[in-house]
Amino acid sequence: LRPAERTDLPNFVRWLTDAETARHLAVRSPLSMAMEEGWFDKMLAEHGKSQFLFVICRASDHRPIGTTDLCDLDYENGSAGFGIVIGEKSEWNKGHGTDALNAMCDFGFGALRLERIELDVYADNVRARRSYEKAGFTLEGTLRSAHFSRGEPLDVHRMAILRDEWLSQPRRKSWQYATDTTPAQS
């Protein structure tokens, strides 16, 4: 993960205007470069206050393949929302989303001292839901017919993970890699 740069905007526009990629996002219409520039300026002003946005890059060559964020940060109650998109379709189903999700949870629980990270996933996005469950997120409820897409209403599933649930998982956290010299477990 790395911070977003203005030079990433063409990728963002390309990813978010692709119908197959945007299908499971709250994107309603094509985005222009001007619209994305306006969004980016707002995001920069809020970075570290109400959100953190990162670009997901492949470890092997640092090529950007998507974005992820913690949003709606509530420092008083220790909560945040989570969002993600793997925009490069050739990188789908390779575990990048799960890796990014784990890194963002480490960041949220380890650096920001959050107590809760939540997300919404559309009922027809089975692949994403599997990834979230694998990372330890629990289904908390269903918002019935809460999203309209492709001519029909869809249910939206609210999922979340709590700090204690995250810490109890049998995997090393990102902050342990700097001090731990034992090989990583798969």
Give an account of the 3D structure.
With 186 residues, this protein is α+β, with helices and mostly antiparallel strands. It has 7 helices and 7 strands, in the order βαααβββαβαββαα. Helix 4 (96-111) links the parallel strand 4 and strand 5 (116-122). It starts with a strand and ends in a 9-residue tail after the last helix.
Uncertain stretches: none
Going by helix content, strand content and strand pairing, the class is alpha+beta
Give Rg in angstroms.
17 Å
Q: How much strand?
A: 25-35%
Provide the helix percentage.
Answer: 25-40%
Write the H/E string, N to C.
Answer: EHHHEEEHEHEEHH
Provide a quick synopsis of the model.
With 186 residues, the chain is α+β, with helices and mostly antiparallel strands. It has 7 helices and 7 strands. A hairpin with a 2-residue loop joins strand 6 (138-149) and strand 7.
Describe the SSE topology:
Blueprint: E1 2-3, H1 9-16, H2 19-22, H3 33-46, E2 52-57, E3 64-74, E4 79-86, H4 96-111, E5 116-122, H5 126-134, E6 138-149, E7 152-162, H6 163-167, H7 174-177
Parallel strand pairs: 4-5
Antiparallel strand pairs: 1-2, 2-3, 3-4, 5-7, 6-7
Helix pairs in contact: 1-3
